User: Which sequence fits this backbone?
């Protein structure tokens, strides 16, 4: 359908739309008034990763279209654990660990969203504020009657685990009820009428909508974004080395920048639409570049995303390091580094210690493959001992894309 509201038009043209519970009604509502929408994030780590960035962008688009975003920190729901997409029970965390994770995550939202006292200023709220105050009998009596076991068993998050004969604890089974209750509280206390999330959250979102309708006869809406996959079919957010974290202390800015610079040619346009604010006509120009020129578009993508997530200085520094490393043959100061002792260090230990390989066994294999270089020279000896000199670090390379420094 053709949308009339700035919100749904923006989400559609940027590639964020997958499912909407009532497109016509939401479109009309978003056109005539400022609406409040939220996305929930369970603080299961001290940093979010780029898989979460797609959901943060939903809130950013909401604010750009003149509406109010709410970030829900799942301090309460994280005590239970979302079974969606999981084959095993999550590890339970202490209140102290959850508080530390929330503190680590907040900075990412503060860089991307505008938090102020205006009508569209973002809010950050912890659902533990109300979930931990609920009495068990109260929850069963007031909310439990609106959920049937029959229907709960049909949701993918439950059905998949049962089909695979993986254990699903009663604790996790309650997650969807708690998330639905979040929507009820937010609708009552903040006049929140929209929940957004990834496509795997569709069932949880629908539960919240139905709970609002049954208890308060309130009409609220849901929007999900498509699962973001790369052109090779892999789920976005992972690399061969693990998650691409948003926080600097979890992943250096250079490595973050380099992930986007290494984007597949076929994904450049899609990622520019999803993760940058560049005008659509400029994105069309960039994605049409061919041959070596497409690398210019990838550099733009890397700069834009890094500047948004890490800051402009981090983007400039990472680009300068890449330019010096790849074009100039040098070794930029932002490269990851490994400090060897005065007596040197075994190359196997350096490769694993700097994070290029997961184990000494993998490092030995890479050396045997001729993939390891020091200052441009291929090293084939697995017992090689590296001896950097003070003031003269050595450049370590694994393949064409991984580079680091070995210092004293």
Assistant:
């Amino acid at each position: 359908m053709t949308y009339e509201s700035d919100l749904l038009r923006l989400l559609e043209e940027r590639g964020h739309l997958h499912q909407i519970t009532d497109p016509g009604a939401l479109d009309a509502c978003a056109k005539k008034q400022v609406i409040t929408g939220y996305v929930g994030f369970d603080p299961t780590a001290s940093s979010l990763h780029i898989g979460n960035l797609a959901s943060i962008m939903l809130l950013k688009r909401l604010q750009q279209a003149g509406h109010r975003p709410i970030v829900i920190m799942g301090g309460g729901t994280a005590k239970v654990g979302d079974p969606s997409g999981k084959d095993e029970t999550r590890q339970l965390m202490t209140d102290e660990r959850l508080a530390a994770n929330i503190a680590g995550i907040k900075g990412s939202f503060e860089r991307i969203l505008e938090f102020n006292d205006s009508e569209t200023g973002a809010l950050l709220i912890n659902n533990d504020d109300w979930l931990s105050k609920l009495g068990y009998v109260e929850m069963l009596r007031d909310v439990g009657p609106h959920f049937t076991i029959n229907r709960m068993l049909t949701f993918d998050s439950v059905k998949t685990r049962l089909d695979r004969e993986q254990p699903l604890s009663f604790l996790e089974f309650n997650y969807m009820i708690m998330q639905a209750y979040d929507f009820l509280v937010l609708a009552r206390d903040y006049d929140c009428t929209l929940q957004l999330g990834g496509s795997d959250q569709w069932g949880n979102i629908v539960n919240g909508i139905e709970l609002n309708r049954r208890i308060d006869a309130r009409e609220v809406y849901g929007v999900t974004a498509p699962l973001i996959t790369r052109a090779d079919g892999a789920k976005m957010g992972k690399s061969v080395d693990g998650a691409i974290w948003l926080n600097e202390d979890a992943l250096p800015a250079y490595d973050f920048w380099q992930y986007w610079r290494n984007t597949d040619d076929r994904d450049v346009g899609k990622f520019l639409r999803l993760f940058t604010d560049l005008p659509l006509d400029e994105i069309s120009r960039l994605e049409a570049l061919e041959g070596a020129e497409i690398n210019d578009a990838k550099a733009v993508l890397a700069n834009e995303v890094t500047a948004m997530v890490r800051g402009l200085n981090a983007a400039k520094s990472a680009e300068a390091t890449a330019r010096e490393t790849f074009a100039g043959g040098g070794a930029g100061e932002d490269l990851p580094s490994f400090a060897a002792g005065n007596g040197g260090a075994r190359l196997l230990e350096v490769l694993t210690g700097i994070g290029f390989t997961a184990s000494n066994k993998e490092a030995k294999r890479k050396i045997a493959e001729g993939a390891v270089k020091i200052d441009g020279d291929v090293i084939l000896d697995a017992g090689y001992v590296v001896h950097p000199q003070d003031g003269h670090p050595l450049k370590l390379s694994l393949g064409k894309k991984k580079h680091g420094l070995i210092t004293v």
Remarks:
- The chain has 18 helices and 15 strands.
- The first helix runs from residue 6 to 13.
- The CA atoms of residues 9 and 95 lie 41 Å apart.
- The mean pLDDT is 87.
